Structure prediction request, 248 residues.
Amino acid sequence: MTIRTCILLFGCLAGCLLGVDARANIVLGGTRIIYPQGEREVTIALSNKGSAPALVQSWMDDGAAHSTPENSSAPFLIMPPITRIEAQASQTLRILFNGTPLPTTRESLFWLNVLEIPPVSAEAREKNNLLLAIQSRIKVFYRPASVSGSLHEAAESLKWAWVKDGAQWQLRCTNTSPFYVSFAQLSTLKAGQTLVNGDGTQMVEPGGEIIFKLTPAAHSIAGLKEGQVRFEYINDYGALKQVDALVQ
Prediction:
């Protein structure tokens, strides 16, 4: 899940995205959503952990990080698209697929955006003010009914190979499965040196590949063997699962 701060003028519901971290009062009931083909709808809970009401606008996009409700493109409807959530209260967000044809042999990836707009007092409205609003984005995976296997099986079936970049070793990961696989930590042992992923969280798409840039670790990893990669992937429930694999 990603969180951004938006600067909004009064009366606007979507503004310029800035790379500023902030704490959101609106908390989503998950870090990802799986939408199985054939489901009428899926839901996610929004909870207001703050001490004041908040206005929330939600929409879907197909990967455009700076999308707005007006220019986003995704085959889903959000109900309600705009809602007020009282302090310490919750609201269920309904996501409905509109039936647009999507690939049937692999997952499709979309994003749910939840924009939290703080309340404005009557006194503040009489002054020139800017509002800081918090936008959260989480992944939504549309999973066709024809896709067989599981995400865990997909993680275990990933293919790993050494890649040399000058004097530095890197790892190429190839995904032959129909699932998206999202990574957290990654470690490997090459020529007696422990190497870790220096790029942070990454994701490999179905039928795709990515290169992990490796940097020396500050300490060794217990139980890690030469030529082995140990990684954590994020499962359907947002939990981290560890897998050990051999590098070819």
Summary: Residues 168 and 207 are 26 Å apart (CA to CA). The chain has two domains: 2-143, 151-246. The domain at 2-143 is CATH 2.60.40.10 (Immunoglobulin-like).
